[in-house]
Amino acid sequence: MTTGGVYIVPAFSGLFAPYWRSDARGVIAGLTRFVNKGHIARAVLEANAYQTLDIMTAMKKDSGVELSHLKVDGGMVANELLMQFQADLLDVPVIRPLITETTALGAAYAAGLAIGLWDSMASLKKYWSVDRTWQPQMTDAVRQAGIRGWRKAVQRTFDWVD
Questions:
Q1: Is 6 exposed, middle or buried (CB count within 10 Å of its CB: 0-12, 13-18, 19+)?
Q2: Omega of the bond leading into 18 within 30 degrees of 0 (cis)
Q3: CA-based angle 123:126:129, to the nearest 5?
Q4: Fewer beta carbons below 10 Å: N end or C end of the chain?
Q5: Distances 93 to 76, 85, 129 between C-alpha atoms, Å
Q6: Which residues, including other chains, have CB under 8 Å from residue 84's CB and lie 6 or more apart?
Q7: Distances (CA, A) of 147 to 39, 55, 67, 112, 130
Q8: Is this prediction's pTM over 0.85?
Q9: What residues are paired with 28 via a beta bridge?
C-alpha cells in the first residue's frame, strides 16, 4: 500500500521545529477520486517519519554532523512499516532497543544512580541491547520525490491564520 500521492501535515496548532509557524494549520494534500482510507492511513503514518526527517535535516544544518544511524524508542517503534520508512527516508539504519520505553527506564536509571545502585553511566550501558535494525532500501529517486511532495504539502499549511 502507498499513500496514492496523499500527504498529511498535522499542523493542528501550528508547525513547530524546524518551521516555527504559528499560522500553519493541518492539511491533507494530494487527494484524488482514487484515494481510499488505506492511502490516508499510510499518509498519517508517513507524516511521522517526514517530521523526523525535517528535524534531522535542521540538526545537520546547525551542527554540521552527519547522521550515521537513528536509535528510536516509544510506542510507535512497534510499527515495523514506520521504522522501515524512517530508515528509507533518512537513508541510515534505524535501531530499536529491546526495551522500547527508554524514557521511563532512563528515569529509573537516574534514580538508581542518585542512590548509588549503580556507580556510573558507563555501568548502565550493559543493560542496553538491540532488538532490531532496519536498513535503508529506498532508491534516492523515490526518496527525493517523496521529500519534494512532503515539502510542497508543508508549504500549503502556511498563512492560514491572518
A1: buried
A2: yes
A3: 150
A4: C
A5: 17, 11, 15
A6: 94, 134, 137
A7: 17, 13, 17, 43, 29
A8: yes
A9: 8
What is the model's pLDDT at position 103? 86
In the chain, where does DSSP find H-type helix? Answer: 37-63, 80-90, 102-114, 140-156
Q: pLDDT for 92-125, tens place per residue?
A: 999 999 999 988 888 999 999 999 999 999 999 8
Q: Which residues of 26-38 are buried (b: 16+ CB within 10 A; e: fewer)?
A: ebbbbeeeebeee
If you compute the radius of gyration of the chain from its CA atoms, what whole number of angstroms results? 18
Sign of CA dihedral 34, 39, 40, 46: negative
The answer to whether residues 14 and 21 touch, using CB atoms and an 8 Å cutoff, is yes
Q: CA-to-CA distance for 87 and 13, rounded, in angstroms?
A: 28
Rounded mean pLDDT, 6-30: 96
**Helical pair 37-63 and 80-90, crossing angle rounded to 10 deg:** 40
SS3 24: coil
Spatial distance between the Cα atoms of 137 and 80, rounded to a whole number of angstroms: 14
- CA distances to 20, 81, 96 from 2, rounded to whole Å, are 29, 11, 24
Mean pLDDT for all residues in the chain: 96
